[in-house]
Amino acid sequence: MLIGVVPLALCSTQLMPGRGFVVNLSIALGFVALSVLGLQFALAARLSRATAPFGIDAVLRYHRQISFLAVAAAFGHPVLLFLAEDRYRVLLDVVHAPLRAQLAWASVGALVVLMVTSIWRRALRLGYAVWHVLHSALGVLIVLAALGHAFLVNYYFSETWVRLAWALYAAAFLWLAVWVRLVKPIRLWRRPWRVAELWPEPGGSVTVGLERAHRHGGDHGFSFQAGQFAWILTGRTPFTLTYHPFSMSSSAVSSRVEFTIKRVGQFTSSIRELKVGDTVYVDGPHGSFTLERHPGLGYVFLGAGAGVTPFLSMLATMADQGDQRPCWLFLGNSHEGQITGIRQLGRLQGRLNLTVVHVISRPGEAWTGERGRITADLLDRHLPEHRRSLQYFLCAREEVVTSVEQTLLGLDVPAERIHSERFGMV
Ligand SMILES: Cc1cc2nc3c(=O)[nH]c(=O)nc-3n(C[C@H](O)[C@H](O)[C@H](O)COP(=O)(O)OP(=O)(O)OC[C@H]3O[C@@H](n4cnc5c(N)ncnc54)[C@H](O)[C@@H]3O)c2cc1C
User: Fold this and answer.
1) How far is it, in rounded angstroms, from Cα 413 to Cα 232?
2) Quick check: CB of 266 below 6 Å from ligand 1?
3) For labelling alongside 101, which of 18, 195, 263, 394 has CA 20 to 30 A away?
């Protein structure tokens, strides 16, 4: 909010009431749109300190939601201007309009393309990687064109110190881009990992064990909290636009770092082709989906498919620490032969105070366990009387998490005890 309204504070030092309220409001909307759009770079920059208090899924949801506000302001700006005074309407002629207006149209046009490709990415059959490159490029174009427009129009820009403040603002956006695309990859390149082990899991997943490659000397360590994740990249260099997020599935107190990755698309399929010794870059740890942040007398973990991975790490860590607090794990899968993490769970047997409930949506005839989905009735049957005092962790695709969240609220579980991580958040 603060960053969004800073430009208005800058403008208020040199108010020009002669322009009239509507024109001034239109200019204010333009400035707010520009600063909120600039802020989007910070939200999407994988800055662990910025995302830690909220969780990456909440930050990306905010990124999405606040961009609607920016779009409303960005469109409100020209619309109000054209309504206020006829003389501005000549700017609608994009070809013959002055450069300052052409830059504004370029920014608005790019914004429209960005919105359409983001909202309807799946319907347009745009692959995630292509979309991500397009999204980043359009983001830079939108903000640079809008800044150029504001500098050339020169309303509320005449004071030197205001121009300087805006130049600093622009430099901060630029620095973020340089940080994400250059500084960070260089750091990762100096600290590569190598594949130490790789084995297939049921459910179309693969577990990859990584260790430091020590290419540039010195072990920089990798300490994480169970439930956190890292952005992963395979290949020769870390200089790329798209990284993929995966939760660590191994114990946080062991020296090995493992990821259990389910095949859903291009990148996750390519994991199967990795060989022992191959280089992997790991940007992390990130995330706040951890037991440390939400201490409790007992835990209920609810997941589906690959959503089990952060729980594998949490449970393995609890076992290594001799933690005997009661835990319940509810796992949704389509078939009993396709349960991601089933082997890791088997290894934890007898080391924890853990009840595992598998819920299978399309089971074979021999299946005697729970069938269908995770419902209120099912939870009611398995959870203890004092369930309101437990901490609940949910991890799966967006729709599943939202539906289980509603079910828990319906069972009177306090909202502040429900913590979630959404895997398909974009
Ligand atoms: C915090 C977090 C932790 C995750 N942990 C695991 C895990 O431990 N194991 C596991 O199997 N999966 C995990 N995922 C999901 C995993 O990141 C995606 O399945 C994977 O990136 C898909 O890439 P793809 O190219 O194979 O598939 P695509 O066909 O490109 O993508 C399938 C869907 O996955 C999502 N996705 C793709 N790329 C990204 C990306 N770079 N960033 C965010 N989302 C993306 C999109 O919603 C996309 O529609 C996690 C996701 C998040 C957000």
Assistant:
1) 35
2) yes
3) 18
Sign of CA dihedral 29, 30, 33, 34: negative
Look up the pTM and report it: 0.84
Closest CA to 262 of 196, 358, 345, 341: 341
* Distance (Å, whole) CA 371 – CA 424: 24
Report the separation in Å between the CA atom of 92 and the middle of ligand 1, taken as the mean of its atom positions. Answer: 42
Identify each DSSP E strand in 144-275 by its residue range.
193-201, 205-212, 229-234, 244-247, 257-262
Compute the distance between CA of residue 63 and CA of residue 41 in angstroms, rounded to an integer.
9
Helix (H) or strand (E) holding 66: helix 56-84
**Minimum CA distance residue for ligand 1 atom 34:** 424
Which residue's entry shows tokens 């409001």?
25
Most ligand 1 atoms within 8 A of CB, residue of 124, 224, 246 to mutate:
246
As a whole number of angstroms, the distance between CA 124 and CA 120 comes to 6
| Calpha distance 248→225 (Å, rounded) | 9
Nearest atom in ligand 1 to 205's CA: 11
Rounded to 5 degrees, φ, ψ at 95 are -65, -45
Ordered per-residue pLDDT tens for the chain, 426 residues: 888 888 888 777 777 777 788 988 999 999 999 989 988 888 877 787 777 777 777 888 889 899 999 999 999 999 999 998 888 888 888 899 999 999 999 999 999 999 999 999 989 999 888 898 899 899 989 999 999 998 898 887 777 888 888 888 888 888 888 888 888 889 899 889 999 999 999 878 999 999 988 755 555 567 899 999 999 998 878 887 778 999 999 999 987 899 999 998 888 999 989 999 999 999 989 888 999 999 999 999 999 999 999 999 999 999 999 999 999 999 999 999 999 999 999 999 999 999 999 999 999 999 999 999 999 999 999 999 999 999 999 999 989 999 999 999 999 999 999 999 998 766
257: three-class secondary structure by DSSP: strand
